[in-house]
Amino acid sequence: MYHTMIDLGIKNTIKMSFNKAKAINAVLYIAEKLTRKDFHKIFKIIYFSDREHLIKYGRTITGDRYIAMNDGPVPSNIYDIFKSVRGDGFFKDDGTFSQYFSVTDWDIIKPAKKTDTTELSTTDLHFIDNCIAKYGDMSWDEIREKSHDYAWRNTSINRPISFENIVLEAGGDDEYIAYLTEQSILANFSLNGI
After folding, report:
1. N or C terminus of the chain: which is more exposed, having fewer CB within 10 Å?
2. Predicted structure pTM score
3. Are 128 and 45 in contact (CB under 8 A)?
4. Can you tell me whether residue 35 is helix, strand or coil?
5. Phi-psi region of 92 (alpha: psi -120 to 50; beta: other; left: phi over 0)
6. 186 Rama class: left (phi>0) / alpha (psi -120 to 50) / beta
């Protein structure tokens, strides 16, 4: 018997899987290169890098989902990791993350290890470097304004930003969204053994 995606309980949305190793190493790589290493700047460089990588290669670098917060998109899992290292997160860091970096002055990332670039692909590094070059010297207000894009504006505050809106912001169309959705569903099938 043929079953539709709806019959199987699968929503037609683009989903990504958070990749902790890539995310941590992206943070370290960015922090090594930026002058201002605060949460806000790192979050925005990661957002722009993920957005641009998604439109070109059909996947983000980190797999993180973004929340539309007042000051722009925030990578949810990375923010939780930062707060746990800082000591005020929902979960307490047991050294898993503080071995890589510490948080000083409330929101400054201080790397404790070098980036393991083998965790990041050549395209990951290329897009991060491009976004650092493009946005790295922007002031807090400038990068905040730049991140208040179509995807952010079309999401309620403190709610997840859809990858579909991120794709549209980056210049993708409905056909590309359909393709990414299909790939996401197929990846879900293989991960769940369906």
Report:
1. N
2. 0.91
3. yes
4. coil
5. beta
6. alpha
pLDDT at residue 10 above 80?
no
Average of per-residue pLDDT across 19-34: 98
The residues near 78 (Cβ < 8 Å, ≥ 6 apart) are: 23, 27, 42, 43, 46, 62, 64
For residues 11 and 94, what is the distance between their CA atoms, to the nearest angstrom? 35
Structure tokens at 160: 């997840």
Cα dihedral across residues 176, 164, 150, 53: positive or negative: negative
For the record, the structure tokens of 178 come out as 């359909």
Coil, strand or helix at 164? helix
Contact 183, 13 (CB under 8 A): no
Torsion of CA 104, 109, 113, 117, to 10 degrees: 180
Of all residues in the chain, the percent with pLDDT exceeding 70 is: 90
- Which range among 3-7, 44-48, 179-183 shows the weakest confidence by mean pLDDT? 3-7
Mean per-residue pLDDT of the chain? 91
Token pair of 120, please? 């990041």
The confidence score (pLDDT) of residue 68 equals 98
Assigned token pair, 30: 């960015």
Confidence of residue 5 (pLDDT cuts 50, 70, 90): very low
